[in-house]
Each structure stands twice: as C-alpha cells, then as structure tokens.
Amino acid sequence: MAAKKKRVVSGMRTTGKLHLGHYHGVLTNWLKLQDDYDCYFFAADWHALTSEYQNPAIVKESTRDIFIDWLSVGIDPEKATLFIQSQIKEHAELHLLLSMITPLPWLLRNPTYKDSQVVGQGEEQATYGFLGYPVLQAADIIIYMANLVPIGVDQLPHVELTREITRRFNYLYGDTFPIPEPILTELSKVTGLDGRKMSKSYNNAIHLSDDEETLKNKVASMVTDVQRARRKDPGDPEKCNLFPLHPLYSQPEEIAEICSACPRAEIGCVDCKKILLRNLIRGLAPVHERQSYYQNHPQLLDDIIADGTEKALAITRETMLKVRAAVKLS
User: Fold this and answer.
1) What is the H or E stretch that residue 43 is in?
2) Looking at domain 212-291, which CATH architecture does it have?
3) Which of 75, 188, 259, 328 is such that its CA lies 20 to 30 A from the CA of 305?
4) pLDDT one-digit tens code per residue, 208-241
C-alpha cells in the first residue's frame, strides 16, 4: 500500500495581478510540491480585506485572475485542490474559536503588525482584523490537518505563531490537530523596474499578464547600472538592477556573453534590455496562451473552483465536528 501523502496548505492574498516575483518566489515552488504532496492552495480573499477593506472590488477582480494565473503556470487541479477562502465558512468558525484562546501579547509581537506601526500606517492598519489575521491564518492551515506549510525564512515567525496556537488548543482541549511544520523555500528575489524588490506597492512590477507592448515599455524603463552613465563606460552586471532577471529567462551562453562584454563596454544597456525583452516574451508566451484559454472558457474555471471547494468542504466539516466536540459545543 502506498504511503499517505503529507498535506501542504498555502494561500495567496487577492490584492492585484500576479507578477514575476510571485511566480519565481512562490508558484515555482508550488509546482514542485504538487507532485509529492496532498496540496491545498487557496485564494485568501478574507486576508486581502485586511489591507483592501476600502477597495473590495480589487479583491473580487483579483480572485478570478489569480486562479487563471495559477493554472496558466502549471498548477494542476488534478494534483492540487484549489478554492476560495471565503467560500469555506468553517475557516471563520475555527478562527473565532482560536481567537478565544490566543493571548493578545502574541499578536502584538507579530513582526508584520509591529512594522506597520513603525512606518506610521496608523489607523489604516490598526484594525482588529489586521491585528488578528495570524489567528485566521492559523485556522486556514490547521483546519485541513496540515503537516507542512511552504514559506520563506522571513515568514517563520508567522508559522511559529500558528504552531503556538495549535499547541495551546491541544493542551486545553486534547490532541486535535497535528503541529504543522514549515517547509523553508529559497525565495527568488526578483528585481523590479526601479531596482527594488518587485512589489505591487512599489508599482514596479512586471505582471504575468503583461502583453508584448507593455513588456517592451517596462523593460525599456528599467534602471540598470546607475554608475554607467554613458555607453562607453564599463559596466558591472553585479551592480545592474536588470541583470538578475537574465538567469531567469536568458540562455547560459547569453548570460556569459553579457558578463564578459559589459565590463569592457562592448555591450550597452539598450542591447542588454533587448536580449532580456526577447527572452521574456518567449518565456511568458506559454503562460499567455493558457491565460487566453481559461479566459475564453469561464465555465471550466468555475468547475475547477467548485470541485476544489467541494473537496475542501468535506475536510473542514469533518474537522469542525471534532473541534466542536473538543470545546463541548457539539
């Protein structure tokens, strides 16, 4: 008999179009995990409202776009269960019960909340939902009896809080949930148009859905080596903001040529951008083709989400029967 696969749970907030940072930082890892684990991937629309509560339209619009992008990069609904967080009301019920046992100091020391106060976001992020989102996050994970959670090292405090909440529930009410373990993943830092980390908030992203003309304009605007003011000046790929994208899309021989020619000023930044643009268009072409397919087959997308929701519901309903019994609410 084949060994039962360990279960992986991960979600993505629906706050806008997905970009290359999402693809190389998260989705490429999901693609590997779906072959070896029982994977549950969800559109975290409730989590999106912690920052976009004044703009809920973007949450609704992004939810469908995210599924299209997931499917278009190769997430397989035959291998992974895909669903929308808000369609599984049991997440909210478990969140409520976990909130009753989570000490407030645990939430106040959450790095994301502390950072939001340091940068002066004030009342915009000083909401109950934003402070308590780690409790909802814990519910999202343990309601599926998850064994593993894929994260980058910067997210370790979030998963550790989930583990603490889970231990506390088990201590108070008896062993109910497995303690989820983090899977540390090497998140690729994808450089944005301005040299900073690619991010929606910086407005410096190359989106998975950008067409050729948009890609051309964005690549043309990219900051390169700021110390290379003229074409005849020698450059340094290690200091170039554009160069980190080459290993993701360009051929090894092209990268070797750039590394050799740039320091000798035998290739200019415009030439380098042309190479990247050509390879970026070629690399994203299959994604764009599949995006168009799913956009033109909305019923297929609806069926995939419905099937995922049904499978997720079966697990969460069973889990909540155990939880209600544990807290004497059955």
Assistant:
1) strand 38-44
2) Orthogonal Bundle (1.10)
3) 188
4) 999 999 999 999 999 998 888 888 888 899 999 9
